[in-house]
Design brief:
By secondary structure, the protein is of the alpha+beta class. It has helices spanning about 45, 70-80, 90-100, 135-150, and strands spanning about 25-30, 40, 55-60, 105, 115-120, 125-130. The protein binds zinc ion.
């Protein structure tokens, strides 16, 4: 069973069906069973396999050499607070922001509403985020804290 503390599997180096390598620019579809078993396919092979569990689509980005953008800073901050108990609310807000900005891909068909899963397409890492109830005045504080961290990060 996939739980908050499960070791989440990374994307494989190649397609599970015909072993086409995943390289920058590759599009892929990954699936995760409720038991936490992950399979990654190229989009072509995905059409041929049986679908089960969560699945999501992604594209491996080409590496950039320009200075960090605001979204990349947000992603760096997200990673730095991932796993910190007292930062769960900021993590939840950042995950939603990064999903809107297409930095993170949310897994579809979540049967477990108490946990959200996101993938970082660039590295194939998975992150679990617990949904948080956040009061409006609290959201303002947390938002301010995030902005501060991005400005100085
Ligand atoms: Zn394939």
């Amino acid at each position: 069973m996939l739980t908050k503390n499960s070791q989440l599997p990374r994307r494989a180096k190649c397609c599970a069906l015909k072993e086409e390598p995943f390289v920058p620019g590759s599009e892929y579809v990954s699936s995760l069973t409720p038991e936490g078993e992950r399979s990654d396919y190229c989009v072509h092979c995905w059409k041929e396999v049986e679908k089960e569990g969560f699945y999501w689509k992604g594209k491996i980005p080409h590496r950039k050499v320009e200075p960090l953008t605001h979204d990349e800073k947000a992603l760096t901050y997200f990673r730095s607070i991932y796993g910190e108990k007292e930062k769960q609310k900021a993590l939840f807000i950042l995950a939603q922001y990064l999903e809107r900005k297409r930095q993170l891909v949310k897994l579809t068909d979540a049967k477990n509403p108490h946990m959200l899963f996101y993938e970082l397409p660039e590295s194939g890492e998975l992150f679990s985020v617990e949904p948080q109830a956040i009061a409006p005045e609290e959201a303002e504080d947390i938002g301010g804290e995030i902005v501060d961290n991005l400005a100085h990060g």
